[in-house]
Amino acid sequence: MSLLARMLKALRPSPPKSPPPRVAAVFTPPYPAVGWWHDDPAEQLRNYRSWVYAAVNAIAQEVARHRPLLYRNTGPAEHDLVTLPHTHPLCRLLDRPNPWLTPWELWYLTVVYLELTGNAYWYVAPHAADGSPGELWVIPSPWVRIVPDRTEYVRAYEVAAPGVPAESFRPGEVVHLKYPNPLDPHYGLSPLRANALTIDANTELLRSRYQTFLAGARPGVVLHTEQTLTDATVTRLEEKLTAKFGGRDNWHRPLVLEQGLKASPWTLTPAEMDFLNSSRMTRDEILAVFRVPPPITGLVENMGLGADIWFGARVVFCEGTIQPKLDLLGQVLTRDLARRYGPDVTVAFADCSPRLLEQRRKDDELDAKLGLRTVNEIRKARGLAPFPDPRFDRPLT
Fold first, then answer.
1. What is the pTM assigned to this prediction?
2. CA–CA separation, 187 vs 149, rounded Å?
3. Could you tell me if 188 and 144 are in contact, meaning their C-beta atoms sit under 8 angstroms apart?
4. Spans of all domains in the chain
């Protein structure tokens, strides 16, 4: 290496050294990582707002209005399903879960916890006399920790309410409803967790919009002039425009400018336009992950077709979103609650599709004409009392 090259190398400044970790941490942004609440049930519940609330509230309200069907399953045919009387202990339990909770609230809270955390827990309080199920209580999901077991799958449920020592419950005392989770066999996976990044993006968009309004509205028009205006002149123009065009009754008045002034509207920049598009996109992503059509949340763009759009959205919502959840609830409650009253006692929900009623009427009419079912069989399928006349127990051919 020549002397000149060695001199230039010596004079060349050395690359800056990276600061030690402690110093570098001082300059990191004070924001948590995106989706940091992904595994925290308490923080998941705090996201019950904005479009998450609109979607989850619609699902929970729809599920809560459906009453479960309680029967004994004695065979594969429809007439083999023997409906339980209203005096049956299981019917009374679901009709009055506990002194402070109505059936509607029971189902609503259950679905809300499922949608937000993927898990819902019912504490089955036993009767003091015989130990049979006496009351049902919804346990908030953040309070529960599952203790796994190698042989029994679940050893216990530890419930720790705020300010109260943790208490352990046997598996038979808790009914655990959850959405299947391929990542964890014990805890469910909620749609909210699966869409954590979009939820955070929507939250930041709402905060940015709030800060924009908090900082003050921007001007709707810009005045241009080649002259140099004094502060007094600028203040006078602002006060004059505000006094003349302020309020909802004056916005349409014509604007007459002084000599040398030109007006142009304040237009949105491409970045601001993209900001608005991002807000709509995150809304659609949130509604899509919960499988809630926009009209169900009140977003109807063409009011002229409101009834048709509403019916179509109801069909998609009930058949694609609500019915699978009702099937899950019925099967879990049959396994963990109804089987305590007998090996054939079943909890199920009727098909909630709006198209079902008209199709059922057509099927009943066709079956009656062909003699496939009797009138009393059709009445029984609809939950009506049979006619005492024996002629209605024979096919009408």
1. 0.73
2. 14
3. no
4. 32-216+261-353, 355-397
